Fold this sequence. Notes:
By secondary structure, chain A is mostly helical. Chain A has helices spanning 2-27, 33-58, 66-87, 95-111, 126-154, 158-163, 170-203, 211-232, 237-261.
Amino acid sequence: MEQEQLSLWLAVVAYVIAGVLAIFGVVLHKKFNRSIQGFMWAGLMLHAVAITLRWIRLEHGPYLTMFEILSSNLFTFMLFFAVIYWRYPPIRGSAAVVIPLLFIMMAWMMFTPHDAGMIPASFDTIWLWVHIGFGKIFMASVLVAVGLGGVIVLRKYLWAEQRFSNLPSNERLDDLAFRFMALGLIFDSLMLIAGALWAHDAWGRYWGWDPLETWAFMTWLVLVITLHLRSTFKLTPERGAYLIFTVFILGFLTFYGIPFISDAPHQGTFG
Amino acid sequence: MKLPPLSLVSYSASLKLTLFLFLLFGAGSILWHFTEHELKNWLITVPMLLLALNLMTALLTNKIFRFQGWLLLFHIGLLLILLLIGISQVTKLIGNVEVTNGSVYDSSIAQWQQGVLHPNRLDDLQFRLDGFSINYAPAFGLPQRLDTQAKLIWLDESGVLKSGIVGDNIPLEIHGYKFYTTFNKGFAPMFKWIPHNGEPVQGSVHLPSWPANEFNQSSDLQIPGTPYKLWLNLKFVDTIIANDRPSEFRIPNEYTLVVRAGENRQELLPGESMVLDSGRLQFLGLNTWMGFQIHYDWALPWLLAVSLLAVFGLGGHFWHKFAPTPWLDEDNK
Lengths: 271, 333
């Protein structure tokens, strides 16, 4: 238990250092790429240790309590971004937007009770894993798009335009952001399908318009509207960025707001 | 055949209309939650119908679909999803039924809602509940339900007697009907009515669901063939589902049944009787009942197939759209 907590705290410290370096890198116009990358991967390894230790101790994966959901999502988002950071050097500057966004999740996670929960019988299905796996990839994709969109919006300000001058043009960032949004739509659609299969097995209906289902559908709809608007009208990169933010905020509220209000990760789960 | 004016067709296929209908659909979905009106389902149905129309005309008239096969596949998938949801609504059945432990399923006490084209075969289904278990464990000072298992014996489609255990994510499936175990269960006092004239009859009364109605374990009993309507109330002090330790739903070790017939009130132990003008009512003891959810929807596998087809089309579309240009330019910009 102590090792688990220690690993988690050290992971958060490593993430925070990576984020702070990313911000300083932009503000001071200096490259801390290797350090940022090192702290991100070190944090991920420590985080993986913390998750594994808890998994072994409680004999179930990190998907039950709000703490576990925040922890596993933070891990997935960070992992996804770390891969992008490593694979696409030109957009590394977006770390100054993405990692600070994850600070919110880190703070929330650390202040959320770390108690264990009980596994409802409806969680004993492979579709749960498929459903949440697709959901995490969806949100991670949108998060990267938010990072790119964030750079586009920040560039409006003179001080930031210079700071982000080593990143590709707004048009290129916009194109990349919408590629990630497209990826997000595919995984969001798959998440809804897997969720419907799970719901059908667990509760005898594939769709019941419960609050979480409704808002998950709203997120999908707004994502579709965003991609439709972009293909129908020639949106400026800045407007495109605001649409990406809307999808992210809606997705974030659906992921964390609705379960927070209904005290269960999936309202309707507990009978 | 006379075609409608071109302007009307092009307006129905408009992408701007699609966006408006998306917004209408979203607004309808949210409003659906805040109204109890009997016609509230139309808030979702109308935008879906309009979207289907918009999509259909777009598929017929928009030239882009002739050049982009993957996009066509995705949109055909979407249209089929809407179509199948519509077919599902008129052919499906959703219901519930309570079954006494040790007894056979009785379709006459089932409650259901069915689509206008549903070929109802609930009367043809036969199964018997041969015991069930529902386990609980404490979580945050409250009992939380764990696994539910029910032992069933049933006649399958070919008339062969089968037995097995169903529960939680595994339903009993006969003739396409799925019976899911639920958390809905309770106690069932069993009686034998021995009239002065006529044959004795045996039956049970399902008391309200436990533990949701822990403090209201009462019900009425209409004695068959008589005007007697008795009031029943189960009394016991046992803790069935504990807050602080693992427990299982079970019959209490000691209990009495309060039976009231007008001014006549008696507390019966198992085996004891209440004498009425036209016969004797014997309390045989306590049994349990379980609620099952019934579900029939033949469109579901097809809905899954076309949903996956649509996502496959979407993936193909984006792949072909993005593949010609690299994620980053040659100079890594």
